[in-house]
Amino acid sequence: ADWHDQITDIKKSDPSFSWKEFLDGASNAYEMILEAFAKGDTNTLKALLSKEIYTEFANAIQQREQEGKVLQTTLIRMGEITCEDISQKGTQVSIRLRFMTEQTHVIRSNKGTILEGSPQQVEEIVDIWTFSRNVRANNPNWILVETEN
Q1: Distance between CA atoms of 27 and 30, rounded to whole angstroms?
Q2: What is the Cα–Cα distance from 16 to 43, expressed in whole angstroms?
Q3: Measured between alpha carbons, how far is 102 from 124 in angstroms, rounded to an integer?
Q4: Which of 6, 25, 81, 99 is the most buried (most CB within 10 A)?
Q5: Are 27 and 142 in contact (CB under 8 A)?
Q6: What's the pLDDT score for residue 136?
Q7: For 12-25, what is the mean pLDDT?
Q8: Given this model, what pLDDT does residue 142 score?
Q9: How far apart are the first and last CA of the chain?
Q10: 91 phi and psi, to 5 degrees?
Q11: Cβ neighbours of residue 142 under 8 Å, at least 6 residues apart?
């Protein structure tokens, strides 16, 4: 699909919008969120996620900590990012992206024993993340509002 018209519409509301910058930002956000989730860094997550998604992530982190588990996620390669959908309701724009990545996931006990995964086992991960922003707002940040895979 060609999202040219939708991108033009976004630029009408926000003349500074650049598709390339948006994708670069989304790619950075993906890495930051992945890393913050693994580290249990809720402050970073709070700034990047909607309340609903933040609650889900924070609950998962809390459960992991209660079970004495440590998650190590390494992003080996950020592959293609493709646009699945762009929608605009009033000044609220949502952009759904498909991230193709290669990652390793290891879950260890707090003593360091590997419980799941392997640092050598590279998995191909597809994540579909929706970022949203009020294009009239002063805050330039796009917020993650939905995750699916």
Answers
A1: 5
A2: 28
A3: 5
A4: 99
A5: no
A6: 87
A7: 93
A8: 96
A9: 20
A10: -100, 0
A11: 22, 25, 26, 29, 95, 131, 132, 133
Residue type for position 59? N
Q: Which amino acid is at 21?
A: E
134 burial (CB, 10 Å; 0-12 / 13-18 / 19+) is: middle
CA dihedral sign of residues 133, 135, 136, 141: positive
**108: which 2 tokens?**
């260890």
Q: Comparing 2 with 46, which gets the higher pLDDT? A: 46
Calculate the average pLDDT of the chain.
Answer: 95
CA 21, CA 115: separation in Å to the nearest integer? 39
Q: State how beta strands 114-117 and 143-148 pair.
A: unpaired
Q: Which residues contact 10 (CB under 8 A, 6 or more apart)?
A: 17, 86, 88, 93, 135
Is pTM beyond 0.85? Reply is yes
Amino acid at 128: I
The residues pairing with 98 across neighbouring beta strands, listed in sequence order, are 82, 128
- The confidence band for 1, taking pLDDT boundaries of 50, 70 and 90, is low
What per-residue confidence (pLDDT) applies to 98?
98
- Assess contact for 127 and 149: CB atoms under 8 A: yes
The answer to whether the CB of 129 falls within 8 A of the CB of 30 is: yes
